[in-house]
# Entry
Amino acid sequence: MMLEVRGIQKSFAGFQAVNGANLDVAEGEIVAVIGPNGAGKTTLFNLITGILTPDGGQVIFKGEDITGLPAHRTCKKGITRSFQVVNIFSRLTVFENVRIAVLSQQGRTFNLFTPSKRLATKETAEILESVGLIRKKDSVCGALSHGEQKVLEIAIALGGKPELLILDEPTAGMSPEETARCIDLIKQLRTNMGLTILFCEHDMEIVFGIANRIMVMVRGVTIIQGACDEVRCNQAVQDAYLGGSDVCSV
Ligand code: ADP
Ligand code: MG
# Structure
């Protein structure tokens, strides 16, 4: 397994937001975490990436225990993420936002030598090309549509050269056209760039359309983890999350 999360826990002022969640992600997979609002999905991603420190449990990445490592260290190990809420420098251009991510991954933020700047220029352009934002490279980010800003977040995450890319509700707030393009993009990142992808998402159609495997989380606990069909047909999942409706035949 590329990523193994074992019995991870986090409480906020006595409230158990994540209460022993488990997750496996194999190299090259696209894994979705689903669950109702407040299930603990964002907190789980924060625990994996080191934005939050777990109270208990383990995060193993490529065989190494990275539990509790801060975010800049997990990033160096090869895990980067985007956020549910757009998180960019809105007064900088698209190009500048991604370049900052590339330079900081290279540890060259304060290096003023021209060659490294040129290198970052090429890599930045390649990333923008790969996500379809190259035409917008000189736009100030605040002027982008919401959907474009969400894609820019993915581009910034790619600047960290991840092996495992974690996306928190990548299509939230997108138009149907933007959503369709974002789904294609996520699939391409796996196929063309060989990335392993972990994401959470509300829309079940999107989940079943992209994911190889699904983990279902309810009230901070992993209910089931398995292939799409297995999860779709699981009675506990249908009762707890899919409203008891028969989605097996969908
Ligand atoms: P999801 O992403 O599945 O909607 P979250 O991980 O955001 O769920 O939240 C899980 C629960 O933890 C929610 O009840 C939320 O209110 C609570 N929570 C999340 N972050 C904090 C925080 N920093 N302080 C207090 N409570 C939090
Ligand atoms: Mg969330």
The mean pLDDT is 89. Residues 114-131 form the longest helix (18 residues).
